[in-house]
């Protein structure tokens, strides 16, 4: 089973090398780092550690993910991956746990696997109070509107590539993760959550670290959920 990784990255030069170093090579064929308009040496660091680097100057988490998907989709059919894993470039995820997300798909038990920080080992200080509240609010809203309980909207996730393409992802910023989860439910994908560890990120958060980012992300997540109800 061919597995590729997509990492959206914005000013992650201090951390991206550690992320790439810890990805289990025996599980992964290629890692695509999408440099989302960084002003530091993120791209150079990623190349030094063997990643394929794409440049997406249009800011937005979803924009970066969409470029990574398009890159894989435009490969010849025989070279497209079976599974795509998404994780962040700030070293808050534990890349070595990637096998735990891919394994249920490899066993044909799931099409989509979400790494749950809520169920896993979340280190003190790894999530701000506003993140915890927003996560709780969003997952309970999904339960209310769709009758399904997720425990997290975490970025660390694995999905069959054909299933990912079938979702028709369109969000270009903060609504990306919840759009994927809701569309997976509506299309009847088999999904699982697995516990993942989570630690304080390296560097300053561009979202939860600012009032504007926190409010903007929260608003977009809620409106995305309501959009697909």
General description of the model:
The chain has 229 residues and is α/β, with parallel strands linked by helices. The chain has a single domain, classed as Spore Coat Polysaccharide Biosynthesis Protein SpsA, Chain A, CATH 3.90.550. It is 40% helix and 15% strand. A 7-stranded mixed β-sheet has the order 3-2-1-4-6-5-7, sandwiched between helices. Helix 1 packs parallel to helix 2 (42-48) and helix 5 (129-146) runs parallel beside helix 8 (211-227). The longest helix has 18 residues, at 129-146.
Which structural traits does this protein have?
Spore Coat Polysaccharide Biosynthesis Protein SpsA, Chain A, 40% helix, globular, seven-stranded mixed sheet, alpha/beta, 7 strands, 15% strand, 229 residues
- How many E strands? 7
Indicate the low-confidence ranges by residue numbers.
Answer: none
Largest sheet: 7 strands, mixed
Helix and strand composition category: alpha/beta
> Roughly how much helix do the residues carry, as a percent range?
40-55%
Number of structurally distinct domains: 1
SS strand fraction: 15-25%
Radius of gyration: 16 Å
Q: Calculate the mean pLDDT score and round it.
A: 94
- The spatial strand order of the largest sheet comes to 3-2-1-4-6-5-7
What is the 3D shape? Answer: globular
**CATH homology group:** Spore Coat Polysaccharide Biosynthesis Protein SpsA, Chain A
Q: Would you list the SSEs in sequence order as H and E?
A: EHEHEHEHEHEHHEH
State the separation between the terminal residues, measured CA to CA: 34 Å
What's the architecture, going by CATH? Alpha-Beta Complex
């Amino acid at each position: 089973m061919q597995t590729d990784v997509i990492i959206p990255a914005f000013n992650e030069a201090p951390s991206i090398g550690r992320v790439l170093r810890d990805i289990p090579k025996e599980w992964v064929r290629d890692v695509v780092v999408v440099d989302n308009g960084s002003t530091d040496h993120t791209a150079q660091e990623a190349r030094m550690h063997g990643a394929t680097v794409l440049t997406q100057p249009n800011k937005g988490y979803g924009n970066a993910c969409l470029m990574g998907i398009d890159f894989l989709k435009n490969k010849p059919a025989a070279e497209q991956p079976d599974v795509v894993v998404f994780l962040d470039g700030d070293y808050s995820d534990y890349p070595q746990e990637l096998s735990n997300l891919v394994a249920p798909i490899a066993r044909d038990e799931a099409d989509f696997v979400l790494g749950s920080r809520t169920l896993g080992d979340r280190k003190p200080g790894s999530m701000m109070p506003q993140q915890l509240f927003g996560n709780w609010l969003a997952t309970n809203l999904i339960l209310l509107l769709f009758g399904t309980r997720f425990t997290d909207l975490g970025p660390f996730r694995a999905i069959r590539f054909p299933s990912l393409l079938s979702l028709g992802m369109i969000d270009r910023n903060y609504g990306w993760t919840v759009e994927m989860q809701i569309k997976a439910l509506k299309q009847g994908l088999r999904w699982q959550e697995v516990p993942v560890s989570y630690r304080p990120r390296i560097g300053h958060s561009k979202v939860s670290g600012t009032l504007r980012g926190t409010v903007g992300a929260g608003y977009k997540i809620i409106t995305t959920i309501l959009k697909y109800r």
